[in-house]
Amino acid sequence: MKRLLAALAVTVFAAPAAAQSDTEAPAAEQPRSESASPDGASEDAAEAGTTASGTSSSVGVKVTALGSHDGEFCARDRAMVFEDPNGTRILYDAGRTVAGANDERLGEIDVVLVSHVHGDHLGDQRIESVNAGTCDAPETNVSTTPNSNSVEIAVGKDAQMVTGSEMASFLGKKMEAAGGDPKASQLVRFGASVDVGGVAITTVPAVHSNGLSGDFIDGPLGEHLKTAGLNAYVGQPTGYVLTFSNGLSVYLSGDTGVTAEQETVVGQQYGVQLAVINIGDTYTTGPRKPPLSSTTSSSRRV
Ligand SMILES: [Zn+2]
């Protein structure tokens, strides 16, 4: 996976490897970090443990993968931290491989992003500690339902959550249930942006599904849903375009097939220089169908 990290570092179109189940992780090796800047310059950054407490590059955006196992890219890995040169830190899809808010790799977190509410992204369970179990079968035996790993981290870090669609009100209620401020869950409708700590966060639609399992709903409603084999509606899944204070523009696809907005909004409007694409070929787009063409974006594929 070092090769992929090199791809991240030169701000190219990164093509993550597939993961199992209904989703497909953004790929990167951990605990190494990489730094990316708009002109494509790169520099090796510190290991994740250092990253969490260290200072960022004066020009680069530091990207750190928080996987289940040190130095590996494993089946359940989803989580990434992006650190703006000004210090703002954004956690993307905590999933199951972050050991809650006390995971020492997190450091300060200002924003928690959730692409959609499937358990392996929102986090229906989590690791107890890094390197538990094997890379192929990480031990994610700490249940976080009916709340979630993402919300518990957001509340524990006093961070904001930013999502598109009806996920925002649902997550606000979960933040309140966890002792946090429900207003810290912000709705940003697709194509619109909010500035948090000098980073512009734009939401774009993803083409996937976004059914909320009854496991996340306490009481009889959750039980009824599970009995009927139904999920609750929480709106459309979300992708993100992050525009950092140094000008770097990054696309986070979430789980998705090819969308029109990848050509128009992500490519033409924002001209993203770095893309983290979830690839699976059964539940999301596959590696033979790159969603961003080199003609519409400054990104390129390696
Ligand atoms: Zn999914």
TrEMBL record:
Keyword NADP on entry: no
Signal peptide positions (record): 1-19
Keyword Signal in annotation: yes
Domain of life: Bacteria
Entry keyword set: Hydrolase, Signal
Low complexity bias locations: 47-58
Name assigned to this protein: Putative metal-dependent hydrolase
Record-linked SUPFAM superfamilies: Metallo-hydrolase/oxidoreductase
Stretch list, region Disordered: 17-59
InterPro entries listed in its UniProt record: Metallo-B-lactamas (IPR001279), RibonucZ/Hydroxyglut_hydro (IPR036866), UPF0173_UPF0282_UlaG_hydrolase (IPR050114)
GO molecular function terms noted in the UniProt entry: hydrolase activity
Metallo-beta-lactamase domain boundaries: 88-280
